[in-house]
Design brief:
six-stranded mixed sheet; single chain; elongated; about 375 residues; 9 helices; Alpha-Beta Plaits; 19 strands; alpha+beta
Length: about 375
């Protein structure tokens, strides 16, 4: 049974699946994988104050090593529907591009891997030493609480072991073959509130302006160099994302000012160290005033590196064989579910070109569907050592 990556991509794109609603996408996958001989199980997880999420684990074979593909069928909202030139759920082909929400991130990568597995199994006559599995969640674009993290725990409790994992995120900036991700920077969000004393702008000596103070605090942390980067990581960065005072009056000094900021940090740091550093700076500044501050931090993930090894070498070789390009091994970009998987096995990320992910008229080249399928097929052949 050979799967066409285009047909499966279109079928998945046509399934509405904004986080956390998986729609029929997981059912479409399960039906096809079951026909291919995979043992499939959909598992739903829940937690307080978060929506329930359906996930899929499918496995072909019983022996080791177990090569896993991880991905997500959930997508971000379409945004302004009138701004789209195509139906975001239509999976239309336009000017050599497959268009629709999830085309880049990352329904096509899932379809290409399934197609690759179908070719690999057909040519091997089911005769190869090892197993192939898929770990598919509906909670990657959202809180990521009831998705991959819990599914990995469930798989482990069932006695399964992952020996290597390929995540199909859209890693390529411009052309297929540009980049493989072998790690990710950590991410810490800071929510800062500075409390001063409200007053009249004509009598600033009778007030304590929290805006001036919060600007100084933000300027201090953004002007400092955290590091100069490492062998595999860019330098850590701090970016302010909002400053709010909720004050429509021009003659009133507000009582409070709020700001949010994001720290992207490399493997020289831990989130707890970053928070300690922030509080030291804020304490030093506010101790010289009558104002006070409150800082809440939320960590999306720690920095991690899956050192170059067999998986990245096999994948890189497949990319070069199919595209002629030598991919950069990178840790750039945002977070992904690889941050959970790295606790279980070596992990690398490679998928479609990400230039249009989350954008209006999200799309991928039709020719890249066949190329990515070939890359995944070659990766499986080389990983399992078969011709």
């Amino acid at each position: 049974m050979t799967i066409d990556p285009l047909n499966l991509s279109q079928a998945l794109i046509k399934c509405p699946s904004v986080t956390p609603d998986s729609g029929e996408a997981l059912d479409v996958l399960q039906d096809i994988l079951s026909e291919m001989g995979f043992r499939c199980k959909q598992v739903s997880f829940s937690a307080a104050d978060t929506p329930d999420v359906n996930n899929l684990y499918a496995k072909f074979g019983h022996s080791s090593p177990n090569f896993c593909f991880a991905g997500h069928t959930d997508v971000v909202p379409v945004g302004d529907l009138e701004a789209w030139t195509v139906d975001p759920l239509g999976a239309e082909i336009k000017n050599g591009m497959l268009c629709g929400r999830g085309a880049s991130d990352m329904k096509t990568a899932i379809a290409c891997f399934v197609a690759a597995v179908s070719r690999f199994i057909d040519t091997r006559d089911n005769n190869f030493k090892g197993s192939i599995s898929l770990l598919i969640t509906g909670d990657e674009e959202g809180p990521a609480i009831n998705g991959t993290k819990k599914l990995l725990e469930w798989i482990t409790e069932k006695g399964d072991v992952l020996d290597a994992c390929l995540v199909g995120e859209p890693t390529n900036p411009n052309e297929l073959g540009d980049m493989i991700k072998i790690g990710r920077r950590g991410s810490l969000n800071g929510y800062l509130t500075v409390s001063g004393t409200q007053g009249h702008t004509a009598y600033p000596h009778l007030a304590d302006n929290p805006i001036h103070l919060i600007v100084k605090m933000l300027e201090t942390i953004t002007s400092k160099e955290l590091d100069q980067g490492t062998e595999h990581f860019q330098a850590s960065t701090i970016q302010v994302s909002t400053i709010d005072v909720d004050n429509p009056a021009t003659n009133v000094i507000p009582a409070k000012a709020k700001a949010t900021f994001n720290v992207r940090f490399n493997d020289l740091h831990k989130a707890t160290d970053i928070e300690h550093w922030l509080r030291e700076i804020f304490d030093t500044i506010t101790n010289q005033t009558d104002s006070s501050y409150d800082l809440i931090t939320k960590v999306s993930g720690e920095a991690f590196l899956s050192p170059p090894g067999q998986l990245s070498a096999v994948l890189s070789g497949a990319v070069t064989e199919v595209t002629g390009r030598t991919p950069v091994l990178s840790t750039s970009g945002g977070t992904s579910d690889a941050r959970f998987i790295k606790n279980y096995c070596p992990v690398a990320e490679f998928g479609m070109v990400g230039a249009t992910m989350h954008k209006i008229d999200e799309s991928v080249k039709l020719v890249d569907l066949e190329a990515l399928t070939a890359i995944y097929t070659t990766t499986l052949k080389n990983y399992f050592g078969v011709n």
